[in-house]
Amino acid sequence: MNPVVPQPFDVKLMNIAAAALYSVCVVLLIAAGLWWTVRHPLFAISGISVHGDVSHNSALTLRANVAPRLAGNFFTVNLAAARQVFESVPWVRQAVVRREFPNRLRVQLQEHKAVALWGSDSESKLLNSFGEVFEANVGEVEQEGLPRLSGPDAQSGEVLQMLRTIGPLFEPMDLMVDKLALTARGSWQLQLDTGGVIELGRGSIEEVATRTQRFLQSLTQVASRYARRPDALVSADLRHQDGYALRLRGVSTTGADAAKK
């Protein structure tokens, strides 16, 4: 048997260097191919398809306004940044952006659905169905007669929930809540579409709703004693522990007394 002769050190070194050089060449070729692919005009963003809610923003307008603000091509465009650009457009609540090979973006939009005006009369803020505050042109609101809600922005959801809870309590009397406010001190106040103002006081939504319902159950009776209807209400204060203070058009009385009767 012939003994195995070890390769000389210089031959081993040459083989290692050749293998390393070959690997470097392969990596460089792959990198060059990727660079060419990424930079090729074929993959430049050439179209954006818009789907979903486009009631307040047409697809054509969205593409015209958003496309110049997008950087990169099909491979390099930052989808998170693109989503933020779309969501910065008025009325857009949420955008989902996906790539469509080889050079397009597909955007699914969800618009805000305004359910109330928010803040003071001079503000252009709105409240959506999720209780989120957003800014848009109030003149573009499709629904008429939206109530105006106000309070700390961080508690907008709670204010909307209060409206949804106590608003229906007034409907059997053909009354509607026109304004509802949560003050900085945590007290609730509402104004009816007839102009009547009711101080609801503090408490949880359940506590305020119970207090309001108890008041409304006696309002018709109290008003009828003075030949008035519930829509004659001028003001009411429900912050009293054992009753409420009540004013009707042309009449002034105390609810604690009337409630006992």
Specify the helix fraction band. 25-40%
Q: Any idea how many domains?
A: 3
Basic shape: elongated
The span between the termini is 124 Å
CATH class of the largest domain: Alpha Beta
Contiguous low-pLDDT stretches (5 residues minimum) are 255-261
What's the quaternary structure here? single chain
CATH architecture of the largest domain: 3-Layer(aba) Sandwich
The order of strands across the largest sheet is 6-5-4-7-8-9-10-11-12-13
Largest sheet: 10 strands, mixed
- The helix/strand class is alpha/beta
Overall pLDDT metric: 86
- Total count of helical runs of at least 4 residues: 6
CATH homology superfamily of the largest domain: Cell division protein FtsQ/DivIB
CATH fold group of the largest domain: Rossmann fold
Query: What pattern of helices and strands is seen along the backbone?
Result: HEHHEEEEEEHEEEHEEEH
Task: Determine Rg (CA atoms, Å).
Answer: 34 Å
Strand content: 25-35%
Number of DSSP E strands: 13
Could you walk me through the main structural features you see in this protein, from its secondary elements to its overall organization?
The protein is an alpha/beta fold. The protein has 3 domains: 31 residues; 69 residues, Ubiquitin-like (UB roll), CATH 3.10.20.310; 147 residues, 3-Layer(aba) Sandwich (Rossmann fold), CATH 3.40.50. Helices cover 34% and strands 26% of the residues. It contains 6 helices and 13 strands. Strands 6-5-4-7-8-9-10-11-12-13 form a 10-stranded mixed beta sheet. Helix 4 packs parallel to helix 5.
